[in-house]
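Anyone else keep sequences and C-alpha cells together like this?

Example one:
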Amino acid sequence: MLNIEEPKSGMAAFWSKAFRVFFTAAAAYALVNMLLWLMTFAQVWRINSGGISTFQWHAHELIWGYGAAVLAGFLLTAVGNWTGRATAGAGFLQAMLASWMLGRIGWLAGDALLWLGAVGDAVFMLLFFGLFVQPVMAARQWRQGGIIAKLIMLIVGHLMLSASALGLLTKGQMWAETGVYIGLFAIIGLLLTFLRRVYPFFVRAASGGSVHLPTPLWIDRASMVLFVALFIVYLGWFDTLAMPLVAGALGLVLLVRLWAWQDASIWRAPLLWSLYLGLAMITLGALLLALSYWWPQWRFVALHAWSMGGFGLVTMGMMLRVGLGHTGRNVRQPRVWLWLALGPMLMAVLLRLLTPMLAPSLVPTGYLLSQFSWMLAFVVMLVCLVPVFFKPNQQGL
C-alpha cells in the first residue's frame, strides 16, 4: 500500500518525502555527469581524480553520486511503508542533500577538494544508513538485514575509493578497483531484491488484479546464494573456472525468473517493461561474465550490461513508478512522455552494449549516441516528472 502524504505544495511538498528530494537530485546529476563524461572524451574537460583512474572516478559517481541518491529516495520512502513508522523529516533530508551536494562538488573539482567529496559522501551515506536502520530496528524487521548488509558494502566501497583517491593507501589502484566492484555488486544485489519485492505487485496492480506472477521460493534462494558466491569468486578467484560456472548458473536461474515473469500485458506499459528489461540486462550481464572467461573482451560489456543496462533501466523505471504512485497519480494512465523517457534509456543501453559486440569500428559513434540518449531520457524526466514533486498529491486516483 502506498504511503501518500498529506496535500502540500511548493517547497513544503518537496521536503515532505525522500523520493521527491533525491529523485530530483539523481535525475539532475545523471544529466550533468554524463555531459561531463562526454566532455572528457572530447578532451574539453579534465577530471582531476587524484590517486584513482578516470574510469574509477566515473564508476564512483555513477554508484555513489547517482545511485546512492536513487537508493536514498526509494529506501527512505519504502521503509515507512514496511515498518509503519515515521521516516526522515525535512531537517534530515536537507542535511543529507547538503552533504550529497558537497560530495558532488568535491569529486567534480578534484585535487585539493577531493577530501570534501570523500567526507561529504561519507556523511551522506552514514545519515542514509542511520535513517534506514532506525525504523527497521524499532519494528524488529530482521528480514531487512540483507538490505542493511548491502548498504554497509556501499559505505565500505566508498571509503576504499576515497582513501585511494587521497593517496592514503599503498596499491591504491587495486583498492580502488575492489571498492568499485563492492559498490557495483551491492547495487545489483539491491536491484534484484527490489524487483523480487515490487515487480509482481506492480504487474498485479497494472492488470487490475488479473495477473499474478509466480515467485517460487527456490528461485529466490538460488539467486541469492549464487549472487553471493559470484561476488566472492569475482573478488578472489576471478581467473579460475569457478567464475564462469557460478556466473553461468546465476544467469540461468535469472533466465527462469524472466520466463516465469513474462506476460503479454507488460509490453503495453513502459513502467513495467523497463523493469523487466532491466532484469533481462542483469541476466545478460551474468551470462556474458561467464563467457568472458573464454572471450575476455566481453568482460566490460558484461559490466555495462549490469551498470548502464540493469542499473539504468531499473532505477529510472522505479523513479518514474514511485514518483507517480507516491504522489497519488494514476500509474495506469497512458502517458506519452513515459515512452519518451524510457525509450531513449533503452536505446542508450543497446548502443552501449551492441556496438562493441557487433560493430567495433563504430564504437566512438555508438558511445556518443548512447551518451546523448542517456541525457535525453533524463531531460524528459526532469521536465515531466520533477515538477510533480512540488505539487500536492492527488489522493483518490
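And example two:
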Amino acid sequence: MKKAILVLVPFFALALSGCSIGQQQSPVTQNIPAIPGGLLSQNEKGSVWKSEDGGQTFKVKSTVDQNRSIDKAEILSITFHPTTPKTVILGTISDGIFKTDNGGDSWNPIPFPPQRIYSFILDRKNPDNRMFVSGVVNTRGKIFRTDDAGANWREVYTEPGSNTFVSSLAQDPWNTNVIYAGTSAGVILKSSDAGETWKNIGGKSEYGIVSDIVFDATKHDSVSFLSYQDKMYHSTDGGNTWIDWSTVKQQATKSGVTPVNPVQILTLVADPSRSGVVYAGTVSSGIYRSQNDGKNWTKLNIIESATKFPIRSIAVDPKNPDHLVFVAGKSFYRSQDGGATWSVTALNSDRSASVVAYDPFDSQFLFVGLRTLK
C-alpha cells in the first residue's frame, strides 16, 4: 500500500491552559507586515504563524471571521490533509479543533465534546470524515472518533479511573485500521479495527508518560515511542516487544565504547523519507540524530544559544531530508545541509513557539504554533 502524505505534529501538554475564542473588534491577522528576518515593531498576538518563503519571514494566521480570532489559543498539533492542498487542521489544548481550507487565511471551528485535548489524528484513508482525538471528561481520559467530520463523536476508549489520560495517538502509515495509544501511566494500547477494540502491548511504570509514537519511513511494523523527558523505546514487530536501547548502551560502555545518550527528551520525530533516521529534541542539550532506530546517536551542532531552551518541535522536509527546522523559545531555525549550518528567524510573538510543520505539498510553506510554556 502506498504511503499517504501526512504530517502530524503531536505534542504532549500536561498543565497548560488556553483561552476560548472571544469577540474582538479587529482580527489580529489583518495588516501585519512581513519584514525580512521576521522582525516586527512589537510582539504580535497570534497562535498560528505561517511562512511562504521557507522560513525567512512569517505572518500571523489566526483569523476565524471579522469578529473572532484564535490569537490566544494554545496550539497542540498541526495536521495537513493528505490529498487536498491548503487544508490544515489545528488541535488546541482547551479551545477545540479548527480547520482551514485556504491555507490559514481563515479557520472554522470543529465541535468536540471535551474541553481539554491531548492528541489528534486525521485519518489517512478517509481524511474528509474520520478523526481521532484523546481528551478528558470528568477527570477520565478517553478516545473519541468521528466518521462525519465532527458532526458526531463516539467514545471508543476510556481509562478505568481518574487522573490518567491518553497522552498520545498515532495511526499506522500502511494500515489505517491500526491505531496506537499511549497513556500518562505508561500503558501502550493498540487497535486493529480503527478503535473498536483494543489490546495491551506494553505497560510498565518505568515508561512514564508516553508522549510521542513514530513510525519508520519504509519498514513495516517498525515503531518507536518516547517516554516523556526520558528515553526512546523501539519495536520491530508492531509493538509486541520493545527494545530499551539504554541496556545496549550500557554493554557498549563496558566494552570501552562511550555512547552519546540524549537525556530528558521532549520530542521524537522520524524522518519521513529515510529508514532508521530519528531526531530527538531535549530539554537543555539540543538535538540528536540516530540513523539506526535510536540505538546510537550523534549530537547536531545547532547554535549554542538555542540549547538553552527546550527543543519542543523538529520537522524534516518530506521532499528533502537534508532540510531540517526546529523552534526554540521565540526563534525559528532552518538548516539546508543536514544540520551543519543554520539560519535563524526571529518570531516577535507574545508566546513561545511549540509546534513547527512543513506543508507536504510545498516545502516553502511552514506553520508554527504558539503556546504559553513554563
